[in-house]
Amino acid sequence: MAYIKKYETQKGDRWMYVIENGVDPQNGARRRIVKKGFLKQKDAKDALRDFERKANGRNFESNNILFKDLAEEWLDVYSETSVKISTIRVRTHELGHLNKYFANYKIKDINKKMYQKALNDLKRKENLAHNTISGIHSTGRMIFKRAIEQDLLLVDPTQFAFIPKDKQTVEDIENQHVEEKYLEKQELKLLLDTAANNGEIDDYVIFLTLAWTGLRAGELVALKWKDINFEEQTINITKTYYNPKNNTKQYKLLPPKTAGSIRKIDVEEEVLIALRKHQLKQKEVKLQVGKDYYDKDFVFGRFNPPYYGYPHFIKTIENRMDSLLKKTPLINKRVTPHSLRHTHTSLLAEAGVELLQIMDRLGHSEDETTTQVYLHITKDRKKEASQKFGELMRSL
User: Is 14 left (phi over 0), alpha (psi -120 to 50) or beta?
Assistant: First the structure.
């Protein structure tokens, strides 16, 4: 049922249209679609007719499809588009969060208040990160958009929903320890020395390459020898390693994280020398094991049986670093292979490289941690700039 109604405002009489849209199953209250603010009755009638024309006589109340069923159908369709396997895996994980709240609700019964409460609970009760909730919300929006496209809904409950943000106090800001996100120069040297003297056969070249290039671990293990140009002293990053189940033979090579992650970077002689030595060791192993070597040109193929030549798991790189740290005074430092990207940032900043150049080298356009590390390292340079300005003005 729909009707036109006049109401009073401080600026005079206005008109609205109201569409009765069923009953909320949670509280029994009537649900309405209301559009206000028309100056004339005719304007409200025209707008209502236009709305009804777009609705095309659809009976939304007769729809009894459950959220979990529509979500499953959406995921099937979404998986057929040109999205990466890793993206589908992420969407499936995000859908799992939404199903905890809405799985057995009828699509028509999920309202804006319920949806917003779910987002709030993801932050307050599940304590998920802002970016994680943002991804879940994106998945929710796509599902409900499909509901509207299939004439299952008239109003999108995700519209106008907001993602709750962390409430950071002054004390939180003052107590941030950016230093925990990277290694200092001497700490990095200690790690590399330990890798060279007490690590696995390829630990040193792995962690040297990560620290001196800023590569992601997935980009590192996906490297092939054809990506390394020893004459030009460059490394070409065009792919990343994907293996969510850690099944040695069922890995996939995918395009990098973003378009900006496809890049060519210059590398120093120290890295190239280490890679050359590593290449010689690899050739020796190939000669020893012959056809048992999985020869797909991987730079960091395994040296251990029975999977000679297969790329390392990313988890293996993490475990190797953790093992090395335990052999040093850095045992309580909470860093990972990804922290070596931030270490690379800190050393570039200390060497005077600008933030935009660092971002370009790392293969991303923006990153909060990279910016935090850069600002932390360059704070003394900012003081120097202020002092020079003061000296200039005092000389007038």
Answer: beta
